[in-house]
Amino acid sequence: MKRFFLHTTFIILTLISISAKAQNKIGVTNLQCEMLSNPEGIDVVQPRLSWQINANVSDVKQTAYQIIVSSTLENLNANKGDLWDTGKVQSNASVNIIYNGKRLENRQNAFWKVILWTNKGEIQSVDKAHFSMGIMNYADWKSTRWIGYEKASAGDSISQYSKLSARYLRKEINLKKQVKSAKVYIMGMGLYELYINGNKIGDQVLAPVPTDYTKNVKYNVFDVTSQLKEGKNMLGTILGNGRFFTMRQDFKPYKIKTFGYPKMALQLYVEYTDGTKEVIRTDDTWKVTTNGPILSNNEYDGEEYDARKELKNWNTTNFDDKNWFQAEYVQEPGGFYEAQMTPNMKIMGEVKPISIKQTPKGTYILDMGQNMVGWLQLKVKGKSGDKVILKFAESLQADGSLYIENLRDARTTDVYTLKGEGEEIWEPTFVFHGFRFVEVSGFPTKPTLDNFVGKVVYDDIKTTGTFESSDAVMNQIFKNAYWGISGNYKGMPIDCPQRNERQPWLGDRTTGAYGESFLFDNQTLYAKWLDDIKNAQTADGGIPDVAPAFWRYYGDNVTWPGTYITVAEMLYQQFGDKKVIEKHYPSMKKWVVYMEQNYLVKDLMTKDKYGDWCVPPESLELIHSKDSARTTNGELIASAFYYHLLQKMKKFATINGNNSDDIQYYDSLSERVKTAFNVKFFNASKNNYANNTVTANLLPLAFGMVPENLQSKVFENIVHEVEVTYNGHISTGVIGTQFLMRTLSEYGRPDLSYKLASNDTYPSWGYMAKNGATTIWELWNGNTADPKMNSQNHVMLLGDLLIWYYENIAGIKSNPETPGFKQIIMKPDFETGLTFVNASYESIHGTIKSNWKKTKNNLQWNITIPANTSAIVYLPSTKVSAVTLDNKKLDKTAVSYKVENNKLILILPSGSYVLNVK
User: Fold this and answer.
1) 778 catalytic, yes or no?
2) What is the pTM of this model?
3) Which of 855, 905, 896 is nearest to 877 (CA)?
């Protein structure tokens, strides 16, 4: 698969050594410079700069840096930092260095590099990094008018099943001078494709990322210098519907938010070689038509394309648009204009189908072999007017036909009408599907596997984590998680990609975002999502269950809105992103106070909406459990979770340096909640909480609400329930599973965590895989409960499983005291039953590796610690003589170590090491 490394709130600049002393010792591979998702046009006035040091020697520490930022490449080459020159700064910091130079103006270009001093010598960047500012104020957009076509055309339908043809817009321009540089700034709602002189600009798809367009609208920026020439040029766009003209227009208006017809605002900013400048803007001289080949594009229902209506050369200067009409000036969306600081979606890979079978009714069923998200590319020959119909689904019925009930009223169908001109290759433009199987009908000849290719589509973010182990079930679960997570990255984290939902539910990512961060560089995705949540907050402090609030679900519970806080902590912990805490703290506190004032009664949180959602039911045929013994009290869940969030808010207040009043407020309130909680829910005679469900005991134990002298007894009840009552299987739902695996390991039963992770009988993740799942199901028993209630590509039930994979099994964890993996805690649970684990994670400081293998008499552990970091390494031995480091006995003059709690603890600097324990 093709992937790119993106960091969207800072610049990555990798370095190579040029000093004689460090030649071939300190260097880098994969040289990159990425400012946000797009270095062309950002609106952060003080961008954060970062770099990585790669080294093939051990113990490399940065001691100082100098950043030089220049307005021209010539100045940078001369080391003239006319925008910013830090001078030599004594510091080991290499990420999130805040720009503090001259004010960066509209469309400002900036070129920069860094010089470093390390304990091994001086190094400096050879390549030159670049970024440019976007349009920094609303006034610069003011004379750029929004244009479109504000009505339905013949064949359109404004109904529950919305059908709206794509808008094609074009404008011929005349550039009278030689072009030195040119950039396009575009807001195309809901989705756009941009062309200049017949060429598509960029390789993004389904752009821009979705927002609540009444709150904020994202613009994309492209350097199009090479696409323009002196003389006549043609600008062209196609506008699709996306989340703007919604899939269910005028349907349930009390629930579903709508925004209007597709529209666009665009600026082409041109600088000529003589130094003069020109701005070409959208206005009513643009021409528009809806009479193109894209007859309909609806995310739920699919795309209809009639190749007979293709507009040949419509986006070049050689086209007669006399039958097109003038574009209309239209009302702007209402939201504030912002540079998009997160990647667009792209085609990230391809899947070849594994089989195609004819059905009794003459259609064909195509099996991709993998539940995937994206679309199908079609290759076909036939007569003009032949229609190929592609219907998408996740599973089959017993007779081999598509199972579509779980799609609800989503029609998930693409229709291609042939023009009849030899071989035709087509794929949709403005929709995506979640599917494994495709019903093909109307194919003019007998189709073969070679007629189809699956295109995998998700946000253009890098895969940062790998994991394999000696357990095949765990490996398959990891693969399933990978496909499920990536497929649901759609400019926001959605719950599922196939049915008539596809919504960014907060509760699905409360802890899930943390686990996902080990697999994908999801920092910018979740930073953007926090903005979506903030923008969805009500004036009095309420936070919805879905954000952006495309569905008006303001349920005022704790566990779903609390994701606002837990995701912010994840971004700080995993990426060292302090800015998100500073930015969102006031809104988070507003919500905390709102919940206290409205729902705290006698120091307990009384409002819970979903409970421990999706607890495994007692019968394989049930969707939800009816057994009260499996149901955890909602007030217990809400109160425990509220306490948990108060602890995080206290941490945020400390990070921000807030005055002691805030800290005292959280301390006082959380102590009151904990006291009331234990009074009401703790059963002193049985040492358990409420009705003794695993979740009821797990939450207070994981959150530190259980008195210290009773913790082991409460844990014994958890173990008994898991081992005896549920025969070594999961009994928790979405809430409990977020803390299950780590808590079992933390309190000394990693073997029990491993049992849950490696099970292949119901209920378990392995049960899903054993029964054909290639992603993660919505229900533990999704194959036997009413299947119409089961999405086969959900991630909410992963809980803390992936965190456990990396932190507890691989031993790759960021020390909370040094966020962003500046120091790594490497403390694997070697006593699980696994015999080997091989994992890696590309942190913001570089790649961390952990590869261990156990035999009866020996543990060998190969580890890699990135340059400019260190690691605390825990070994399962108290005998120093039993351990070797790089085949040498431990020597306190060479390495720091101590024995504590039956572990040998080493402090290792950066480098690659081989540890052996007899």
Assistant:
1) yes
2) 0.95
3) 905
